[in-house]
Amino acid sequence: MGSSGADKTTLMDVLAQRKPKGTMTGEVLVNGYPLDYPIGRVSGYVEQVDIHVSKTTVREAIEFSARLRLPEETSDKEREDQMENTNDILELREIQNELVGIPEGATGLSSEQRKRLTIAVELVARPSILFLDEPTSGLESRAPLKMAKVLRRVSDTGVAVLCTIHQPSKEVFSFFDSVLLLQSGGRVAYFGDLGEEGSQTITYFEKNGGDPMNPKLNPADYMLHQIGTATTERGGQKDGHEIWLLSPENKELMGSLEHTKCDKPAIVPDKAPTSSSTILPQETFEFSSLRTSSGSAL
């Protein structure tokens, strides 16, 4: 999470190996293991723009993805079961025979339904990791809250859910477990568990010279304000990224990453997984670390 220009999408694209151009340094780990196979084999990516064939039904869109992306040895029954399970998780069963239509069209799916279909197209391939670029943006009324509940259900199935998000409501924010706060230029201002109603992150800012939290405020708005106006205890301006680098929380995180890091690759390249059932041990799903030249970790 961060303000516009914080390079949230750029970071996620790098982690998802979707940035073929440019200079990238550092290392990406999954469960402490270095990657030596394309992460796309075990992950899904939900872009901000929902692109579907307008004349297909919801079911046809999901089946098309399942036939192309599930392992070749998948039986018809297994594929059908996976499609039905995906329909249930994304609550698409009641509209599975409706045409997708065009965005903002007189007929077809609403923007919120289209987003759920986009997620379903990725989820039916049984990814272990699901990336989403601002899944609540552009949704109206209570749709962002419904989307947050959907993502929570996906996470509860054992899929690691990582998404960028911009100024979520208090209700939406409550469904997330941890947060990475980025300042302009992609610099880390905080990473860690949120705690109940963001209490753990709020405590971090308050003890580092931040403003006291007003209980009436949205925790997400409070955090975005703090990383934009970081101060020291003496009241002078100090960069939030610098505060993070010197914090005990960052040192503890770095130590944890070193402790979980393994030298051997996660999976032999020519035996990369084709379903979430064959990927990494689930008991320690410490998703990733990205080291920068300044020593910060994501």
From TrEMBL:
Keywords: Transport. Residues 1-137 form the ABC transporter domain. Gene3D superfamilies: P-loop containing nucleotide triphosphate hydrolases. InterPro entries: ABC_transporter-like_ATP-bd (IPR003439), P-loop_NTPase (IPR027417). GO terms for molecular function: ATP binding; ATP hydrolysis activity. It holds the Pfam family ABC_tran. This is ABC transporter domain-containing protein. It comes from Rhodosorus marinus.
